[in-house]
Amino acid sequence: MQMTAEAKSSNQSASKSGASREIFLPPERDRVKDGGKPHLSAKNFSIFYGDFEAVKKIEADILSKYVTAIIGPSGCGKSTFLRAINRMNDLIPSCYTSGSLMFDGEDVYGKYTDEVQLRRKIGMVFQKPNPFPKSIFDNIAYGPRLQGVKEKKVLDEIVEKSLRKAALWDEVKDRLDKNALGLSGGQQQRLCVARTLAVEPEILLLDEPTSALDPKSTAKIEDLIEELRGSYTIAIVTHNMQQASRVSDYTMFFYEGDLVEYAPTKQLFTNPRDQVTEDYITGRFS
Amino acid sequence: MNIGTRKILDRSFTAVGLTSILLMALALLVVVVPIVSGGIGAIFFKGTIEHRKLQLREFDNGNREVLDRQIAESEPYRQEVFRMLDAFAAELETFEPTRKREYSSKVSSVKDIVSHLLGPVPGEPEPILLRFQYGTTRWEKAEESLHDLMFVTKWDTSNPEEMGKQYFVPRVDEFAGTSLAALFPYIEENLEKMLLPEQTFYWGFLTERSLDAHIFGGVWAEIQGTLFLAIGAMLFAFPMGVIAAIYFTEYARENVFTSILRSANSTLAGVPSIVFGLFGLAFFINTIKVSDSKSVLAGSLTLAIMILPTIIRAAEEAILSVPKTYKEASIGLGSTKWRTIVTVILPAALPGIITGGIISLGRAAGETAPIIFTAAVSVGATIGLGDVLTSPTPALSWNIYNLASEHEAANEIRHVQYGMVLALISIVLLLNLSAILLRARISKKLKG
Ligand SMILES: Nc1ncnc2c1ncn2[C@@H]1O[C@H](COP(=O)(O)OP(=O)(O)OP(=O)(O)O)[C@@H](O)[C@H]1O
Ligand SMILES: [Mg+2]
């Protein structure tokens, strides 16, 4: 099976692999401290659902401390790629990968990789806010508790810090013991961000974090991403082109499982190299 | 289809649906009303002085002074009865032999009824069985006995084509012309003064043991046995069922083995309960010998096997209905699968799991067939918690059947049967009610 998959994508590799490695740092004023090292490196990385190759032979580095947006039409494999980074796809029995994906020099799919530890370093926020049916406090404390933090004082600190980072503290500080499902959708999503931050991950994966939210909450989440930029490596899937251009430093454009173009966001939106990219960002299809 | 026909169809369906629901409610009413009223009669009835004597002497309940006063109050009327009987005994001696024989058999049925009403007649040997040591404890029974005293039941078999017809002859006629003829109007007149019936609220029916095979006393042994068996079954079946459900939903791969297990589970749910009873006898008692003979342990295990499929299914469904996003969130935060199950999935599935569990508990409490061969005895003492591994126990479900069909005085103790039925139904209803309440509470907590 893999043979056919390889044969299929080698036809297209000429058009794509050239683009993938040419990544430039942003202009001086937009740079972040210590950023720009390859945090994640995909080499010849494919993801399959059974026989179906949903993501094809990706060659790309995601740079540390920058925000990378992933765009592309529906069904092109954005979520699949994002979920592969912290091995959430392990939950889908038919899903497997080929090629390699390195995280800080460690093979994500290595034989001896502890996927549970990995997920603590690579946090994820999902499209639909998914707080646990527990109190706000317990939601945030869930991750730290997993790592064995028990002291109430330490947990208190973590909860406050995470909620402040997620710009939610002022809204919920008086009702930390209330059920998280009582929050509004936007608050829930920021809670999910805070919950992920509480684990102190290095990478933050956001899969369409604002698609279920109203414009006001969306703006808050975008501000939040801006806030976190420079401290975390962030990959965000979005359908919203304005959002991608607003919040990201780099943009990956996926099309039918291929990484068609990967460039600094400004360049990709103003001067796309590929015709398909241009068609997509100008809204000729979606 | 045009609007007219559609409306007519709608209406007629509504009518049919309503009718069937009404019919069901009616049938339920027909069953429940007698059970409830009969069962309440076991606790709330007109009790005679004999009931109070029994309570004081056997269970040490009641007020001795009041009772003594009442005894003193009723005694003169009783003495009059015994005096009349004595006088007649003396008169009998003067009769010629054939007449004497005839009357002594007649008077002995009178004495039987009198002692049934008032307790042992003085001068007769002290009876051994408790049931003969006291008179009638319930006033409605006393009225029945009074009728037996006043009338002789005869059968008219003159027409061979038909069944015999029952008719009554006043007993007083049999003693016309003797001194005993005065006894009948006297008792009819003064029975109330001899028995002093009072409205009685007999809680002890639920909390006291039975005396002399349920002729007197309560049904605590049965209630306790039922609780032991049902809770025991739960102790085995609930953890096993939940673990199996977790395995099925979270760990099992879809393969032949799993699908065989699944269908075995569904099949097991449909097996008649008597089969489980026989299995329990053959396996738990005869093969692996968890106890020498019937025991609460063997019965609980048998019931556990019976309710296991239901618990598994309910738990499976509850676990599957937990949103997948909870699991994703937990796994995504770096939780292990097991930890996710324990801290996120099970708490969210808890309402469903508990509902399934309690409904199974109710079923275990009500089943008869599985415990016939493995745990139940018809008449037994209240057992202690320490005896559950080795001793059998009476239990409501089995004793209801037993009292109704095999008890020597089944007709005398209908109220006990009704009381047991009511107790059993109440237990099951209470369990279901608590399931509903618990479920509502937990769901509310989960929803915030
Ligand atoms: N569990 C699965 N099993 C089989 N195929 C799947 C599964 N999940 C996704 N796919 C397929 O993989 C392809 C990529 O799906 P993916 O969810 O990654 O798309 P996406 O780019 O995130 O789309 P969207 O923008 O709609 O979220 C699609 O063709 C989809 O049908
Ligand atoms: Mg998606």
Automatic annotation (TrEMBL), chain A:
Swiss-Prot/TrEMBL GO biological process terms: phosphate ion transmembrane transport
Listed InterPro entries: AAA+_ATPase, ABC_transporter-like_ATP-bd, ABC_transporter-like_CS, P-loop_NTPase, PstB-like
Domain of life: Bacteria
GO cellular component: membrane
Compositional bias segments (type: Low complexity): 1-20
Disordered as annotated region, ranges: 1-37
Keywords, ordered alphabetically: ATP-binding, Nucleotide-binding, Phosphate transport, Transport
Compositionally biased tracts (Basic and acidic residues): 27-37
SMART domains: AAA
Domain ABC transporter, chain residue ranges per copy: 40-281
Residues spanning the signal sequence: none
An MF annotation (GO) of this entry: ATP hydrolysis activity
Family matches, as Pfam families: ABC_tran (PF00005)
NCBIfam families per record: 3a0107s01c2 (TIGR00972)
Protein name, UniProt field: Phosphate ABC transporter, ATPase subunit
Origin species: Chlorobium phaeobacteroides (strain BS1)
Automatic annotation (TrEMBL), chain B:
Protein location: Cell membrane
Keywords carried by this UniProt record: Cell membrane, Membrane, Transmembrane, Transmembrane helix, Transport
UniProt key word Membrane: yes
Gene Ontology CC, one term: plasma membrane
CDD domains: TM_PBP2
Membrane-crossing residue ranges in chain numbering: 20-45, 227-248, 268-288, 295-315, 338-359, 371-389, 418-438
Pfam families named among the record's database cross-references: BPD_transp_1
Bilayer topology term: Multi-pass membrane protein
One BP annotation, GO: phosphate ion transmembrane transport
ABC transmembrane type-1 domain: residues covered: 223-439
GO molecular function: phosphate transmembrane transporter activity
InterPro entries attached to this UniProt entry: MetI-like, MetI-like_sf, Phosphate_PstA
Family: Belongs to the binding-protein-dependent transport system permease family. CysTW subfamily.
NCBIfam families in the cross-refs: 3a0107s02c
Protein name (record): Phosphate transport system permease protein PstA
Organism: Chlorobium phaeobacteroides (strain BS1)
